[in-house]
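A quick aside before the break. I want you to see a complete sequence-to-structure record at least once, exactly as it would be stored in a machine-readable document. Don't worry about memorizing anything.
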Amino acid sequence: MIFSYHSGFADDINSMIEFKKALGRKAKGYEWGLLSFDRFCQIEFSNACELTKEIVLSWCNDAKENGASNYRMHIMREFGKYLISIEKKAFVLPAKLIPPYKVGIPYIFTDDELRRFFRATDEIPHDTRSPLLEYTAPTIFRLQFGCGLRPPEVRLLKRRDFNFSDGTVYISESKRRKDRRLALNEGLVKLCRRYDAIAQMHYPNRTYFFHSPNGGAYKSGWLTAQFHKSWEKAGLGNERGPCTPYDFRHNFATRTLMRWVEEDRDLEVLIPYLSAYMGHESFNSTYYYVHLLPERLANMDFTKANGIIPEVLS
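That is the input. The structure line, written in tokens, reads:
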């Protein structure tokens, strides 16, 4: 999609987005958010070209009903900071006014739920409109669960990212650009190699490993919809709360930690490696999973590990 801005802030919006891209940042979230802001200004502040407190708060408050206010506040703060950096007068929304992000409790799958879910993906019938679906769903979800990948990371994998010779996959479309190369277990290597051979027969010149019948990579909405279809087909409900494809990542982390506990491994040594494998920005993100585990692990003293954990190169 080509984004076009027409308010009094159009030039500044375009220059900020180009600046973000030049830094290697992903700008899609800014493009969508600022498009909404641009349209809002065309209607409510048609003659404005200076970012004032009134404009910022008006746009942010306009989103309170649909829960997008926090998202808009972050965008406005970044836009204001950018305008100040290029020596323009602007209101910068104070960070203290932005509510902290509320982390939900991940859904931890039972062994039975996982068996039933993956059996449901294995039983997807052939669909002439999407000839790879019966192979894509079983492979993409097993790969995500087996490697603890974020949904965008698994969706945007390219064929060139796989090295079947040494059994690794390169994660390049990563959050905060934490690129990394991951080792796959033997089962995943065989599964992905088989999928690749089948996909090549249908799309011999494909770029993305999981090629959409519409061309290119699958969209985020497809992954979520397919997850829920398989979940429902497996006869699984939501009595314990909602779940999403992202929960495969949470389950990878918690199951890995529990396996190490059961094997009596040294977690203070191993957690940095799990952090690097998952592409976490800091060890704190990995330690977050400790409180999701049984009491015997949650009560362990990890504070002594702060500052002495060896560096792991990803």
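Two observations worth writing down. Residues 28-44 form the longest helix (17 residues). The first strand starts at residue 162 and ends at 163. We'll return to this after the break.
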